[in-house]
Every structure is written in C-alpha cells, then in structure tokens.
Amino acid sequence: MKTQKLTLTVVMIALLVVMAYVPTIPLGIVPITIQNIGIMLAGALLGWRNGFLAIIVWLFLAAIGLPVLTGGTGGLPAFFSATAGYLWAYPFAALLIGLTITYLDHLNYTNFFTMFLTILIFGVFLIDISGAFGLHIVTHMPLTKALTFQLAFIPGDIIKAVIATIITLTLRRRFRILYHV
After folding, report:
1. Domain tally for the chain?
2. Fewest CB atoms less than 10 Å from the CB: which of 25, 79, 137, 161?
C-alpha cells in the first residue's frame, strides 16, 4: 500500500473515532448518529479496498474494547446489540460504494447524481435495511415494524449522503490523488 493511501486510510479511521464522540439524538433504542457519514466517505474517498479495510480496522478496534463507537462505546457486546445490524453492514457499504464509484470512474461517468445515487443505495438503504434486520433478530421486533422504524432515519441519512457526495467531489477535484483508488 502506498504511503499516501495508507495515510488517508488512517485519517479515515481517526475521523470515525472522532465522530463517535459527536452527541447523538436519541430515537428509541437506536440513536441518530453521524458516524455513518464516515462509512459513506470511506468507500467514496478511499475506494473499495482501502474503504473496506478502514472500516474493518475500526470495527476491530471496537471489538477489542476501545471506545470508538457512538457514544464512546466498544466491546464485543455492541456486535450483538440492537445496533448490530448497522455495524455488520458498514464494511460492505464502504466496499460496495467504492466498487461502484471505481466502476463509474472507469466508464468516465462519475458525477454528482451517480455518486449520490451510489451513496444513497449502499450508504443509506443497505445500512438501514441491515439495521432493521438486526433489530428484528436481536430485539424480536416484527420485521415490518423494524423496517418502518428505519423511515425516521431516512431524511437525515439523505442529507448525510448529499454532504458525503459534496465532500467527495470537492476533494477529488482538489486532490487528484483520490482518483482511481
């Protein structure tokens, strides 16, 4: 891994840790957090390989007990709690965002709309659907109710997807280093 890519990957992990300490908005058993914007950025800025790696390393740090998750929590119990479905989806969301954007780059078809749509599908819908399944499995909430519960997150998540798209496109224009990751 080139030094530049390694540095960007470590910066993304650090950003995810910092985001853990941004206050959340309680919403039932699952709070509204900004950490998922970090997942969107990891895939969009780092590409599929480094984005996936950054999320895996961050989740490993959480699994060994470091306080890197929302609210400064960590430890294995988080991976089996009401929010487990989100955590399990994070590396795959970054991977799929990165793969799709890399594919769009090769087609020379990356623009605001295609990047936003990619982030929306994998960084919002995939994570929220996985979160619903996690709620269903862990809390025994009926799946339809768990999916309906996710609707409360959609407006904020769409705003986060727009922000992630703007940040990604801005950084990619300024620093060509992020192309063809």
Report:
1. 1
2. 25
